[in-house]
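Dig into what follows:
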Amino acid sequence: MQVWHGIEQIPADLTGSVVTIGNFDGVHRGHRAVLETTISHARARRLPAVALTFDPHPAQVHRPEAAPSLLTGLTDRLELLADAGIDVTLVVPYTLDFARATPEEFVRTYLLGALHAQAVVVGHDTRFGRDNSGDQHTMSALGREHGFDVEVVHDVGEDRRWSSSWARQLVESGDVAAAATVLGRPHRMRGVVVRGYARGRELGYPTANLAADSVGTIPADGVYAGWLRRHGGTGERLPAAISIGTNPTFGDPVRTVEAHVIGRDDLELYDEEVVVEFVTRLRPTLRFDGVEPLIAQMGHDVQDALAVLRASGV
């Protein structure tokens, strides 16, 4: 997949495209339905399928103090869009100046002037332009006026519409298994491994501690079965028992995310970017009366995690 960071990077010889627009946080199954429709139209017209997305997320610009945590940062969003089959992603820098453009100006500048869109695919809840004043009806009207086709993909889901907010709620509650149903994959976090207290190594279960600025919604405190993918997600995929919390047995004040790679005590992961994927929650965080019961429970956690991962076939 090609990535264009701003319209300045769009090739001069681009003569047409099929475009979809969105933040695509999490690239969940609802997003994938829109992406699949976009790709289908693009293949039929022998044109590139283009996803137009924004960075940073608009909520981080308009209300940074209240912006929700992101399920995926830009790196993972691009990877997931590529996995979905999109040919090109145009990343538009989201600024307050950009947000002042009217729906008409947005369409003229980006969809027509830059991408030469012959068709546009949007979800039924799409919003664009100043104060989110543009919606699916606005896009359809602009399509009729300017000569491009518009298809609206309506709600997609089973018992409930798949959405980023629903997936985020499930992750934050610790129900990562249910979140995976919405996302169509395990929820993930991405970050650099940093030095912690080295307590896990002393107890016989060394852990990779993710840096505080790691990207991805943090699940509820507890112990999870999951995977650790090395080298920014491109390397080995290793089974892991993942702990989130403040280590109440030791009275640690800082909440951490740390993954024990099962069966491996030979890994040197410091300063390496890794991706941690969450399959299911095994138990809540507990406080133990001493080190021995903690070590015994960690042994049970490792066995439980292995059993889950073997059964999941993920």
